[in-house]
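Please decode residue identities from the backbone states below.
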């Protein structure tokens, strides 16, 4: 697959990824290569990755615990401490080998250590390949609140090696697939239709490339999320609130990001039908598509009240207003929509039907 050029770096795929990495390392003159992994990627991805690196370099591996619950400033402090103890300097590079937690957190750590060192992202989950690979968003959660602390800073390069997907459970693949479906909903009805008919993940490589192209087109036009880039947040206003609530709850099983966003997209599609012209036919099509792939989340009335209470923390908010991205139709998104309070519970009722 052809490499994709962003505003300041390239996304390379499979064999071209390792070729680009080795060429870069050969000419970079890095003092030390630090590789950030979690327990899963240490076991399943690191050996294969290391086997592809040519040349004699000074390596250090830093391991963190897996999962969204560890995407916080405390983990950052541990990684900063490890970098310092291992004598990292400003000519070091941090290679983030893992899913979205590793790439988001690792990018933030690198961006702030000694006021910034180079980092390279090697996403190993479908979600991180299609979502975190482009845009330069780095950061961590504040308690259960998603991505409240961070900076936009670009990696040196991103390497997408799709064989890493073989290490994932199907549930993780479906989580990433939700973000791909979102790309179709906000930008490309034909892409949405093609993804809808995909019955397994054997042919996913080209679709990953297409999703990265779509996201890159958006980010190139609006790198700092002033307007168009907000469309990438469709389903995320309610979806992030759902994810945060279930992450903090002791009585509910934690949801994967894509599972929460899938629910958020159904809810926000309902709001779109009520407010911005999405047809009933397309609303039902969206709900049916997600219902086939994602188990229904059970929301009690108390759950809904608590989820709605978290909306005030959404990053798109301004001047005390909660701003939604909604759809005019499949493939056409509209920004900064305010939701009447009396529509939230009907949206959840539609989701439950």
């Amino acid at each position: 697959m052809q490499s994709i050029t962003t505003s300041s770096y390239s996304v390379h795929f499979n064999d071209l990824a390792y070729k680009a990495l080795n060429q870069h390392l050969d000419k970079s003159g890095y003092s030390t290569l630090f590789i950030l992994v979690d327990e899963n990627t240490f076991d399943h991805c690191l050996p294969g990755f290391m086997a592809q690196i040519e040349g004699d370099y000074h390596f250090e591996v830093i391991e963190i615990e897996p999962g969204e619950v560890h995407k916080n400033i405390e983990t950052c402090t541990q990684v900063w401490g490890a970098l310092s103890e291992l004598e990292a300097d400003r000519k070091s590079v941090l290679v983030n080998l893992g899913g979205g937690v590793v790439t988001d957190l690792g990018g933030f750590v690198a961006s702030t250590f000694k006021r910034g060192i180079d980092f390279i992202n090697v996403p190993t989950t479908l979600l991180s390949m299609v979502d975190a690979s482009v845009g330069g968003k780095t950061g961590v959660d504040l308690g259960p609140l998603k991505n409240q602390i961070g900076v936009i800073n670009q990696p040196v390069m991103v390497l997408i090696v799709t064989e890493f997907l073989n290490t994932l459970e199907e549930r993780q693949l479906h989580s990433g697939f939700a973000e791909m479906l979102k790309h179709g909903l906000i930008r490309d009805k034909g892409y949405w239709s093609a993804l809808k008919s995909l019955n397994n993940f054997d042919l996913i490589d080209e679709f990953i490339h297409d999703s990265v192209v779509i996201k890159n087109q958006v980010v190139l036009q609006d790198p700092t999320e002033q307007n168009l880039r907000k469309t990438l947040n469709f389903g995320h206003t309610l979806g992030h609130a759902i994810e945060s609530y279930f992450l903090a709850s002791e009585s509910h099983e934690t949801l994967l990001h894509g599972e929460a966003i899938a629910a958020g997209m159904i809810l926000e599609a309902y709001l779109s039908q009520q407010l911005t012209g999405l047809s009933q036919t397309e609303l039902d099509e969206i709900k049916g598509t997600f219902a086939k792939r994602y188990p229904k989340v059970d929301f009690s009335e108390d759950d809904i009240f608590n989820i709605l209470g978290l909306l005030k923390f959404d990053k798109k908010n301004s001047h005390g207003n909660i701003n939604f991205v909604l759809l005019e139709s499949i493939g056409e998104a509209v920004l900064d929509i305010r939701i009447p309070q009396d529509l939230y519970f009907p949206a959840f009722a539609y989701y439950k039907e």
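Observation: The radius of gyration is 20 Å.
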